[in-house]
């Protein structure tokens, strides 16, 4: 080999050594690891870890996640979202625990033009410039509440009292109940609210029970959701008691104890995955989720919050793979736009809570396959027909 050729090869090798590596895809994840919503936020974090354990690469390249704790504070949710986008330059956002916190984060995401998967239910948000930016994995509240109202109607319930949070989640639950109950000729005769940080709901419970409703529906989640359950039991309430998907957690069962016996809750298929028929594609993903959760966290899942984050990760990874195929470079507005377009053309992504197909006019992406009813019996969730 002559000297000139050797120099040319050496130069080429040297240039190769300085060729920049492929830009990595960055995800910003916000959750409530502390504060009153941590009973949801900690499982959310474990669910995302399970998602990464299940599928962590695209075309052989790892996707990097930056996680921040918002302390269950909506203002911190906004600050964290801004920090992740403006300082860390993330391409995508996932979060957070609690409806008010998630709404705050989603609002910031839309303003900064960053696509996001919400892992808590949120009220409708403005589309933003060029179209929508945010989808959610939790089933729409009306879909879940419709299951409750259908069950009430089958038991000939004519009146129902509501006791729930005095925040965006409570509003979602109450408004969904009003909407479905009216069509079923069921009268909503009480609307009692309490803050997540309250230590007592005695007054609210007494007012609701004094109206002698045929049933009571609860609009609280996690550990604060156990307060009215305990208070109702202490006052000898024996009527039908309906909960919600936010009561599917080991923390709720532990705190509510025997007071929770008999509560009927709507939830996703993941809660009773083994009882689904073999032909149901969700069953396979539920089993995969549980295996990945144990691998990532060293314990079995015991809640319905972690699968929302797991499903959010699956939805993101599906969109990211298709966005990457466009040739756009991660870390650029072009890649964020490609991610957004991919997100809203998601089709039949099977998760643990449902099968997701998003469109600009549908940020929920699920149908009745994402809902089952369970009843709490002996500290466990039993599938209802």
UniProtKB/TrEMBL annotation:
GO terms for biological process: amino acid transport. SUPFAM superfamilies: Periplasmic binding protein-like I (SSF53822). Residues 1-23 form the signal peptide. The keyword Ubl conjugation does not apply. PANTHER family: BLR7848 PROTEIN (PTHR30483:SF38), LEUCINE-SPECIFIC-BINDING PROTEIN (PTHR30483). Gene3D superfamilies: 3.40.50.2300. InterPro entries: BCAA_transport, Leu-bd, Peripla_BP_I. It holds the Pfam family Peripla_BP_6. Residues 25-365 form the Leucine-binding protein domain. Keywords: Amino-acid transport, Signal, Transport. This is Branched-chain amino acid ABC transporter substrate-binding protein. It comes from the Bacteria. Belongs to the leucine-binding protein family. It comes from Bradyrhizobium icense.
